[in-house]
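Hey,

Quick one before I head out. I ran the complex with 2-oxoglutaric acid overnight. Inputs first:
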Amino acid sequence: MIDVDSKKLKSFNSKGYLIINDSETKRKALYLKKAIKKVMLRKLKSIKSDFSETLDIDATYNKLHAMDPFLSGGIYDVVRELPEFLDLININSLKVLLKKLFKWKQIHLPYGLCQFRIDRPGDTKYHFDWHQDYTFNIISKSAITFWVPLTDVTLEKGAVRILPGSHKKLLPVKGKACYEPGNNGNASSHLTFKLLNAKASDLESNSISVPIKAGQILMFHSHVLHRSGYNISKNFNRWVAIFRMGDLYDNDLILRNFFCARPNKPITMAGFSKVHPDYFFNE
Ligand SMILES: O=C(O)CCC(=O)C(=O)O
Ligand SMILES: [Fe+2]
């Protein structure tokens, strides 16, 4: 049972985020880490026989990447399809916690919107600039994002940056009313929306970086402003599972017939412009 006492809940309500510890999450994050390492070793074995099984996950991943980025890319993609990943995003203790804290009756677990990121040192290809998750996911407004790293995420390795207290209002965005994934493969080519009136310098000066240990949980409100950190370390990757849970019985969600962003239906990926036309401006 996760202990979020009234003091922590108060802090969450005022800042929009919380770091929590849960033994089940920690254990499942470790299982996933071990499974990823095994998959990488199996791949390495298919290429060469003289490698050390004692390498840690960073060294193993770096080795694959050094041989050919195509190899590390295959690992990146398959992690989300490991049962150990699904076990982590469907974690019971977190579902119980949300039902208890927010009186939700039914959890919404939009697994298509759950990610596993491996950010390499110096790699900004998938940098996700300041945003509110709600704009991209349009699950319940009250939804929670869980950010669970498999190895410690220090400032150097790209701790996520958060603007405390920013969850109290939804912000207007500009973008395209249709989802048009770009063809250069970087994040900015498929991230559909940008904040309309945000001054980067204000966001930067009022925000904080949130370093976090392996298996800890950073939970934040779907409206909290945040952005990716930069991995400026030399050899360490940033391994993180990002999953979301919402309130399936949210009135607005029911009224719109459970419409939300779904990667298997690309037309829904810019759905915010339809759900909140008053918060959306054509670019
Ligand atoms: O881990 C990151 O860099 C940020 C990812 C993020 O904000 C998201 O997936 O919603
Ligand atoms: Fe996000």
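Residues 162 and 208 are 5 Å apart (CA to CA).

Talk tomorrow,
K.
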